[in-house]
Amino acid sequence: MSKYSVQIVRRVAEKEGVHPTELDDTLGDVIDPDALDQLMMSLERNQRDSVGALRFEFCGYTVRVSAAGDIDIQ
């Protein structure tokens, strides 16, 4: 599976109808992509019943990544 940060950028670009490199902002402008990936991969490895979510704005969309690893972009 792709890193979470890569999935988010690809999905936002798809919603915008552009190539990921053509987005107006970079993910790093709003959140540390490496920290996001490390956090989510740590949760996957530990497979604990974690709850909660990380939410941030990116390119005009609200991105929500749940502790279970689900990505929702609205």
Question: Which key terms come to mind for this protein?
Answer:
single chain; 74 residues; alpha+beta; 2 helices; 36% helix
Number of helices: 2
- Number of individual domains: 1
Strand order of the largest sheet: 1-2-3
State the major sheet.
3 strands, antiparallel
General form: elongated
Which residues form runs of ≥5 with pLDDT under 50? Answer: none
Number of extended strands: 3
Distance between the termini: 22 Å
Helix content: 25-40%
The helix/strand class is alpha+beta
Our Rg estimate from Cα atoms comes to 12 Å
Beta fraction of the residues?
Answer: 15-25%
List the helices and strands in order.
HHEEE
**Average residue pLDDT:** 91
Describe the structure.
The protein is an alpha+beta fold. The protein has one domain. It has helices at 4-16, 33-46; strands spanning 53-58, 61-66, 71-73. It has a three-stranded antiparallel β-sheet with strand order 1-2-3, with helices on one face. A hairpin with a 2-residue loop joins β1 (53-58) and β2. The mean pLDDT is 91.
Describe the structure concisely.
It contains 2 helices and 3 strands. The chain has one domain. It is an alpha+beta fold and 74 residues long.
Helices and strands in order:
Elements: H1 4-16, H2 33-46, E1 53-58, E2 61-66, E3 71-73
Antiparallel strand pairs: 1-2, 2-3
